[in-house]
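Render Lantibiotic ABC transporter in 3D.
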Amino acid sequence: MIIEGVDVRGLQHCETTGLGVLLRQQGLELSEPMMFGLGAGLGFIYWDGKGMDFPFLGGRVKPFELTRNLAGRLGLDLEVRETASQRKAWQNVTEQIDAGWPVGLQLDSYHLDYFGSKVHFGGHIVAMYGYDDVAYLVDTDQQGGAVTTSLASLAKARAERGPMTAKNRSFTLTVPDQLPALRDVIVPAIKACAGDFLNPPIANLGYRGIEKTARQVEKWWDRSDDPARDLPQAALLMERAGTGGALFRNLYRDFLGECAHLRDDSALRTGHEMYGRAAGMWTEVAGLIAKAGESGDPTHLEQASTLLHDLSRLEHDAMQALAAIEV
């Protein structure tokens, strides 16, 4: 069973790609930055736990939180199904597809046949729109957009346990007959995102997490067993691993730009301008981290540290400006 007429465009980020497929099927077209911003998707985490080969930098909220936020903001009916049974998990998907509706899936990308990078990531999200002897999926443009994977690999990916995984999670969205006007919902979304970023519960998150990264990044040379491998890989994840570039700051900059066309607000314009600068600086940081590994010269990490100190202050000030937008 393959649903006909599904718009299988792959976008830059996995969760917004999946959301786009589900929403377009019901006639709701939102840009990727708008989905990301309404889902209050921007964030930051510095993660370096026991057993990790190398620190991880994350630039967004935890997996699936964006989807929950977007559904709540627009009044969408979000139905989520989870189960420990692989039989029930498959039934949850086929019931929806047989009824003509694509389904969102959260899974571990490691097991997907088409994935070039074999790294465990349990927060990956795809849309599924058909099945026969393979599963028909929509992933990011970078991963190929409309792709297929074996049913066995899909089952493994959905059932994997570990960090950020969910129990065979599948979900659908139903768009109501009447949606709120975008200009009325963008400000609450912006203010919610700013509030979380400015008031992180621990020092690894938000603007405090960026400041912590600034202090730690100079130690990455000694932290790594193989800087020539690990540093360019870290930079690649920041720029190309479904982030839209600049660790999701490009997407948030473009969201704020769309919002500035919907509402005339000086604080909003200020935040947009500041995130434009931040996006360029994040790309520069990634370049310096990569150059340190490629050149064998750790002094590039000192330059990255200086920029990260500046970024912590810049994003703090940008979010303060955005928190002050009048409802």
